[in-house]
C-alpha cells in the first residue's frame, strides 16, 4: 500500500495539471476536529489498490474550498454534499456523480434536523424566529439549504428573520446548541442520532429534534470528466462494486465490518450507483430558496 499524502486545496504545491501517478481526493468537512485521512483511510487504501496510483488527500477547511478545487482542476475525485455537488457544477466544475452513500439494504437518502437544547421552550421550527440559529455552511444541504426552505415555509427569512451563525461543521452546529451558544440549529440527522453520542461528545437527550426534513439524496462521489477513460472506468467500478464494508473485509483492507469506515457516519455501509438526475430535487429547492450561488455558471 502506498503512503497517504495530504495537501491543502489552497496549497501552491498542488498542480493544476494531471499527474499520471497521483489521484487528488477531497471531501467536504462534516466534522471540524476530525482527521479526514483517518476517516477515509479504508477508501484511500482501496483506491490505491484498484488504481495502482498514489492518493493524495486534499485537506479542506470548508465546503467552498472543495468546490473551488473541482472547478480549478486541483481535485480529481471528491466526496461532496448534494448541494456542494450542484454548486460545483453550476460554477463550472466538469464533474460527474458516480455513486452515493447508503446504509446496508437502504435507500440513498438522509434527513436534516432542526434542534434545540433539551430544556428549550421551542417546540417547532416556527419558534426559531428571532433566535440565534446555528447553520453549518452556506453550501451545506442539511445544514443550510433545506433548513432555509423550512424557515421560509413558516414565514421566517433565514438571513434576517433569525440571527444566523455559520458553525463550519455539522458537529459544531449540534454542540453549539447543546452548550447554549445557539438557541437553535440544523444538522444532518446522524450527527444528532449517534455520531456525537458514540464519540462521547453529546449525551442522549441533550438536544431535542423539533423539525425533520423530507428525504434528501445522500452525499455523492464525483469525478473529473477530464480523467483518462480507463481511470474513470476503474473509479466507477471501485465505488459501485468494492467500496462497501463487506467487500473491504473480503479484500483484507478491514478486519471486520465494525472496524470499516466509508464515511464520517459509521452507519453507512457503502456506495451504490447514482446519476446526476438524482439531484434535481436539490436544484429545485436551491432555486425556490433563492440561494445566491445557484444561478452562477
UniProtKB/TrEMBL annotation:
The keyword tRNA processing does not apply. GO terms for biological process: transmembrane transport. GO terms for cellular component: ATP-binding cassette (ABC) transporter complex. InterPro entries: PhnD. CDD domains: PBP2_PhnD_like (cd01071). Pfam families: Phosphonate-bd. It comes from the Bacteria. The keyword Signal applies. Keywords: Signal. Belongs to the phosphate/phosphite/phosphonate binding protein family. This is Phosphonate transport system substrate-binding protein.
Amino acid at each position: 500500500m502506498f503512503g497517504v499524502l495530504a495537501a491543502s486545496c489552497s496549497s501552491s504545491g498542488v498542480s493544476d495539471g494531471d499527474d499520471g501517478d497521483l489521484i487528488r481526493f477531497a471531501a467536504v468537512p462534516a466534522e471540524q476536529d476530525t482527521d479526514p485521512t483517518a476517516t477515509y483511510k479504508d477508501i484511500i487504501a482501496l483506491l490505491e489498490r484498484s488504481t495502482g496510483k498514489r492518493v493524495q488527500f486534499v485537506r479542506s477547511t470548508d465546503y467552498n474550498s472543495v468546490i473551488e478545487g473541482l472547478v480549478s482542476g486541483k481535485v480529481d475525485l471528491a466526496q461532496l454534499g448534494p448541494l456542494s455537488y450542484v454548486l460545483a457544477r453550476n460554477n463550472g466544475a466538469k464533474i460527474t456523480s458516480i455513486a452515493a452513500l447508503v446504509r446496508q439494504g437502504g435507500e440513498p437518502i438522509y434527513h436534516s434536523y432542526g434542534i434545540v437544547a433539551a430544556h428549550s421552550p421551542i417546540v417547532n421550527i416556527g419558534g426559531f424566529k428571532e433566535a440565534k440559529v446555528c447553520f453549518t455552511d452556506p453550501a451545506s444541504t442539511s445544514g443550510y439549504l433545506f433548513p432555509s426552505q423550512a424557515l421560509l415555509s413558516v414565514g421566517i427569512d433565514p438571513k434576517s428573520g433569525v440571527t444566523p451563525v455559520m458553525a463550519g461543521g455539522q458537529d459544531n452546529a449540534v454542540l453549539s446548541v447543546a452548550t447554549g451558544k445557539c438557541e437553535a440549529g440544523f444538522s444532518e440527522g446522524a450527527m444528532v442520532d449517534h455520531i456525537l453520542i458514540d464519540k462521547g461528545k453529546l449525551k442522549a437527550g441533550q438536544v431535542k429534534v423539533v423539525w425533520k426534513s423530507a428525504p434528501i439524496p445522500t452525499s455523492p462521489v464525483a469525478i473529473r470528466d477530464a480523467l483518462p477513460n480507463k481511470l474513470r472506468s476503474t473509479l466507477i467500478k471501485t465505488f459501485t462494486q468494492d467500496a462497501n464494508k463487506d467487500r473491504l473485509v473480503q479484500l483484507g483492507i478491514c478486519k471486520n465490518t465494525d472496524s470499516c469506515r466509508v464515511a464520517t457516519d459509521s452507519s453507512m455501509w457503502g456506495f451504490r450507483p447514482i446519476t446526476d438526475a438524482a439531484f434535481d430535487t436539490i436544484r429545485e429547492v436551491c432555486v425556490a430558496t433563492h440561494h445566491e450561488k445557484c444561478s452562477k455558471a
